[in-house]
Design a protein that fits this description.
Helix content is about 15%, strand content about 30%. By secondary structure, the chain is α+β, with helices and mostly antiparallel strands. It has a six-stranded mixed β-sheet with strand order 4-3-2-1-6-5. β1 and β2 form a beta hairpin. The longest helix is centred in the C-terminal third of the chain and has 12 residues. The radius of gyration is 13 Å and the shape is globular.
Length: about 120
């Protein structure tokens, strides 16, 4: 996957331009991660800030939109192309100012870009 694609929704993800994903449940291959707290785009790097609730001791994580496998507006879910452990192991998100820190965003994108490719689960 080219590095720039980590910052773009996959064509078959179901993403609609301008759609508000706030509040949707975020699901990894192996379970629920949390919910979309907000969406942001700085430096041409669109991403989701996901509130993990008590799962990761109440912290939030930043997820580049290229990690989104699918969006189901009816079911109100965003499915990621990774596992919960991979989300948890991503560079730590501490403050909102990091969403405007190019170096931090690059490190997050690099982390997700280096994850092994995953196949979509069989339906």
């Amino acid at each position: 996957m080219p590095m720039e694609s980590i910052w773009s929704y996959a064509a078959d993800s179901g993403h609609e331009a301008g759609a508000d994903l706030t509040g949707l449940t975020v699901v990894a291959d192996d379970g629920t991660v949390g919910h979309v707290d907000r969406q942001a785009e700085h430096f041409g790097m669109p991403h989701l800030v996901v509130d993990t609730g008590v799962w990761v001791f109440g912290r939030s994580v930043l997820v580049p939109v290229g990690v989104v496998r699918s969006i189901d507006a009816r079911a109100r879910t965003v499915t990621l192309n990774c596992t919960r452990a991979q989300v948890k192991a991503a560079p730590r998100f501490r403050t909102d100012s990091e969403t405007m820190d190019r170096d931090y965003l690059v490190s997050v994108g690099d982390y997700y870009h280096r994850l092994p490719p995953r196949e979509s689960p069989a339906t």
